[in-house]
Amino acid sequence: MAPTAPAGAAPGGRGARELVLVAQDLASYGRDTGSPGALAPLLHSLDALSAEGLARVRLLYLYPSQVRDPLVGTILDLATPVPYFDLSLQHASEPLLKSMRRWGSGDRFLEMIGAIRRREPAAAFRSSLGSTGPACSPSAPRTARRRRRWAAPSTATS
């Protein structure tokens, strides 16, 4: 079922100008109903609402293991999705992430961010990262260097 125009008043009597989709793991939208990967098709449906005044769709809280094509391509290619990646990275230490049963490592995150920035240099990234805990102390300087690389301008993708 295609979504209807979002409720809300915007200038000129049109629908909402910005729609913010929020979930603990938005990239897994549809998985609970047997339709993993359903976020990209939803974004296509919402993009069609640009004719009714929808200017932006912002996605909050994407689990990094799911930030890949076709989702990335959809975000970057359509007019309404904002190229803003709010990633739930949490840490750069692979052993600590594994102990939390989470995907990734500092190197994997850098590769993912670099690949997106090569496609869209203006893409923005946000995340929350922890710097304390039992597995953090030995790697604290290395973790701090990685954080600086993640936050670097789009020209620093190597």
Which key features would you list for this structure?
alpha/beta, 10% strand, 158 residues, pyruvate-formate lyase- activating enzyme
Outline the structure in words.
A two-stranded parallel ribbon has the order 1-2. A two-stranded parallel sheet has the order 3-4. It has a single domain (16-151), classed as tm_1862 like domain (pyruvate-formate lyase- activating enzyme, Alpha-Beta Horseshoe), CATH 3.80.30.20. The chain is globular, with a radius of gyration of 17 Å. 30% of the residues lie in helices and 10% in strands. The protein has 158 residues and is of the alpha/beta class. Helix 1 packs parallel to helix 2 and helix 4 (106-119) packs parallel to helix 5.
Number of strands: 4
What's the order of the H and E elements? EHEHEHHEH
Radius of gyration (Å): 17 Å
Terminal-residue CA separation: 42 Å
**Bulk shape:** globular
Give the CATH level 1 class. Answer: Alpha Beta
- SS-based class: alpha/beta
Oligomer: single chain
Q: Major β-sheet, in short?
A: 2 strands, parallel
Strand order within the widest beta sheet = 1-2
Helix content: 25-40%
Instruction: Output the CATH topology.
Output: pyruvate-formate lyase- activating enzyme
Uncertain residue ranges: 4-11
Which whole number gives the mean pLDDT?
81
CATH level-two architecture: Alpha-Beta Horseshoe
β-strand amount: 5-15%
Count of helical regions:
5
CATH superfamily: tm_1862 like domain
List the domain count as a whole number. Answer: 1
